[in-house]
Design brief:
Chains A, B: Belongs to the metallo-beta-lactamase superfamily. RNA-metabolizing metallo-beta-lactamase-like family. Bacterial RNase J subfamily. Two copies of one chain form a homodimer. Chain A is α/β, with parallel strands linked by helices. Chain A is 31% helix and 25% strand.
Chain lengths: 554, 554
């Protein structure tokens, strides 16, 4: 039994240094609950890395306490670490979420050959007990159906986690945020609120998802030929609106792109996406229909080079191609970092003679995250004693903290944490606690390791200036140079025979100088080769390729 | 003398495949005039490349015809190829532009040790004759002062080139677009209009530069401590407004960042930027002033890692640091591709405890390019017989062409060209002509060469998966393996001794198999090593590092 004055510890392991890899641990006595287990996608700073996970060593070390994993919704920044975490845990820990979210997770786990996970389906209003935690789920609106917020009652205090949310009064599936539950919890008293900060710098109120429908229908109705709509495959409400608009104007829908095919299948089976079978046709049957009766729902809204839209735009899709007279709707916003890839596809499509609609020309996308007015409204409804902004970059967390001050929460009760920091709650009071091991883990092919800055720095350097290998074979019997082999990759001057010849001569004379007399250690020669070659190349080319010297005695 | 029915040829060498490296050649008989000579900055697709230039071989081959180079304004995408072009030309060709533009170019040429260029200063309304070309300059408004449009009268037809422009009725320096001249040329008849397409997808009318003033003044006035404003150093009107706001609220201005120091100096000397000496102070004198009397004007609005703002945010600036209570204004938009770098700096500043204002929170930036209503207005004023959208990516050119159709220009008279294409104008009629050599040239250190796709592909591959060098020394006398040296850079498994040992064993047995009997050619062994190592690493790591095999006989 925990002592009477035990603290509830809130430990974010991810999600506070960017939009991604959300994972927060809640611990009281011998009981631990995790909310979300997400991944993050790498950017230019992490070349060649496939995925980034939060370092969840702390969870593994305390596995015996872990009573359950709660997933608020089905986006990868909330679910994507699960395949890795589940394989690292020695016990089967139950996973609590909505039917749709579990359906999406099931598919992902199957890809990793993870069999029969312990799924526990919950609904809006479901209450579960995990050790000292009494947990209630409540409906929230977001850019994926069946998203939850979480209320936790513990002996040390009450906590609410909004999950990702916007406050949509006219959601496509009619499932509004459960304001009654939120206000009931508020009446019980919330000691700490954790709330989504993604749009904390954006003034106003995010428009309802329903606002997108008329623009989609208008474009689809008036398009002279086929219409291609690229969107997030998990954005079932958006897909529903695209399907509804298509059917309303007498068009059939074709679905293409792996995740789009998978997610529409799951969502239709589970009853989240409704379109009659006769209105969905196979890509191979398209030729039977006139262009003006076709809508193609596809992946590629982020400019991904292997996506359906990119393949179609480049004439590399197995069954579909885009041509003059087609209309393309990008029903999504580029995620920061993807702007140029998206623009490249738009340019390819423009050259083909397509009309393109994106957010800048028509209301074909709205955010799934609440803006400042919604965040303040949430704070005003919940009236938390303490506030911890989550799910955002430093700018967003700070902006959210300022909003909380505006709503009347004293600055001393607002806690901007870093991943691995902890917040301790006792008798309604919160204060910072000790930090735990945290960080990031890189998935690089089959290797899943702590971030190694040397590897990434080397890759960036290789990308900048290429590599020169210089192999020197020295005859051990007389310290003379047997062979010098010099080759470059990713360097503009590799085919400049004069320069490469001069470089070879330089290495030879450098080695001969070092070896004169009794010879030198291999290490000395290696360093000498590297330095002289680097300096020579800088002086001749003003580039600094990575020099890999290999010195061997033969 | 050209024949009576000679054509005026319009040949864009750059600027039609993206925002950058603008360069257009106009040729009639034995006379050639160039408008703009710009560069483009590389993106992720060109790792390690310093700059991208248009391939101007065609100009060098016809140098004897080149009568002059006209520069519309001082931005690098219109001037940056000049240092390279001037060095490649054998004669001194005169350069025509405004006082400010020439002042900016002079500084750049000096950096390249180009002495006493043939500068010819022109004003709004200036008319010059270059061979068969009668050329008139007219004032336009843009995000840099002293920008021109160009009207050309030739025996084969009249052409107008807008340069980069917006239609600003309340420009900071009072120099409005010369509508009278534009309408006078229109009355003479314009056979071809070339017009700026940058914002052709943006509805409405771009706000006046003056719209930014009140927001800047409000933030600067109410900031509790120092205010740092990052902007483009060539945006003299913006700098003027920042200086004016600072002086109006009793603050002194400090200028930092190399290009900001240079450009403010040039602009003040030439009379384009007006601020009294007593209101500008040196960074080292800052400590004498209280925080609330300071504004720092700095570079870094694009998140450049070596810029003043980045250095200050990271505590690496020689004289200034940013701390809690400071306010930072990003008075610029991130250029596509720079979004993440800018956001990274904003996050660093947020962690320091700064208040940050960018375009999403206050009107601290407006574009320098006209939106759809301005583009249509220009088309309506000019009433060109033929239209050629320039200065944009494929999407922008197509959007601009659609606007032209809306204004009544028949589709057959609208020409979307690629770089290197030509348009021939005769008796007011335009048609596509033959193409000329064109393309891009990369500046990579000291090497200035045609784009080499192999080099860039290798760099991207090196960045993705790193490099493995495998050196095999074979004793020529008995075909046995003398030494195997295996090393990796930028690979996560380079320190995995078991894996590296297994790889070495694999290479040894592969080489021994190949060398059995009479031995094998070095090339055969090299290929064998590369293939077996690549396959082994893929099977063990699911990565594909570049394998550089070096096989030598000793």
């Amino acid at each position: 039994m925990p002592k009477k004055d035990s603290a509830l510890k809130i430990i974010p392991l991810g999600g506070l240094d960017g939009i991604g890899k959300n994972m927060t641990v809640f611990e009281y006595g011998n009981d631990m609950v995790m909310i979300d287990a997400g991944l993050m996608f790498p950017d230019d700073e992490q070349p060649g890395i496939d995925l980034i996970l939060p370092d969840y060593t702390y969870v593994l070390e305390n596995e015996d306490k872990l009573r359950g994993i709660i997933i608020t919704h089905g986006h990868e920044d909330h679910t994507g670490a699960l395949p890795y975490l589940l394989q690292d845990l020695t016990h089967k820990v139950p996973i609590y979420s909505s039917k749709l979210t579990l359906g999406i997770i099931e598919g992902k786990l199957a890809e990793h050959n993870i069999k029969s996970p312990k799924f526990r389906e919950v609904q809006d209003g479901s209450t579960i007990t995990l050790g000292a935690f009494n947990i209630t789920f409540f409906a929230m609106t977001h850019s994926i159906p069946a998203a939850f917020g979480v209320f936790m009652n513990t002996p040390a205090g009450n906590v609410m986690h909004t999950g990702d949310f916007k406050l949509d009064q006219t959601p496509i599936d009619g499932v509004r945020p459960n304001y009654a539950a939120i206000n009931r919890f508020a009446a019980e008293g919330i000691d700490v609120l954790l709330s989504d900060s993604t749009n904390a710098t954006r003034p106003g109120f995010t428009p309802s998802e329903a606002a997108v429908g008329p623009a989609l229908r208008h474009i689809i109705k008036n398009a002279p030929g086929r219409v291609f709509v690229a969107s997030f495959s998990s954005h079932i409400h958006r897909l529903q609106q695209i399907c509804d608009a298509s059917v309303a104007v007498g068009r059939k829908v074709v679905v293409t792109g792996r995740s789009m095919v998978t997610n529409t299948k799951v969502a239709r089976e589970l009853g989240y996406l409704r379109i009659a079978d006769e209105n969905i046709i196979d890509a191979y049957d398209l030729e039977k229909l006139p262009d003006e009766q076709i809508v193609v729902l596809c992946t590629g809204s982020q400019g991904e080079p292997l996506s359906a839209l990119a393949r179609m735009a480049n004439g590399e899709h197995k069954s579909l191609s885009i041509h003059e007279g087609d209309t393309v709707i990008i029903s999504a916003n580029p995620i920061p970092g993807n702007e140029k890839s998206v623009q490249a596809i738009i340019n390819s499509l423009s050259k083909l003679g397509c009309d393109i609609y994106d957010k800048s020309q028509a209301l074909v996308h709205v955010s799934g995250h609440g803006s400042q007015e919604e965040l303040k409204l949430m704070l005003a409804m919940v009236k938390p004693r303490n506030f911890m902004p989550v799910h955002g970059e430093a700018q967003h967390l700070r902006a959210h903290a300022k909003l909380a001050q505006q709503v009347g929460i004293p600055e001393r009760n607002i806690f901007i944490l870093d991943n691995g920091d902890s917040l301790e709650v006792r008798h309604g009071k919160a204060r910072r606690g000790p930090s735990v091991d945290s960080g990031v883990v890189y998935v690089d092919g089959l290797s899943i390791t702590d971030a190694n800055p040397v590897v990434l720095r080397d890759r960036q350097r290789l990308a900048q200036d290429g590599v020169i290998t210089c192999v020197v074979a020295i005859r051990s019997r007389n310290h003379s140079v047997d062979t010098i082999d010099l080759s470059g990759r990713g360097v503009s001057f590799a085919t400049d025979e004069v320069l490469m010849g001069d470089a070879r001569d330089l290495v030879r004379s450098q080695v001969e100088r070092l070896e004169k007399g009794n010879g030198a250690s291999i290490d000395t020669v290696r360093k000498g080769v590297r330095n002289s070659l680097s300096n020579f190349l800088w002086s001749k080319t003003h580039t600094r390729p990575m020099v890999i010297p290999v010195v061997m005695e033969v």
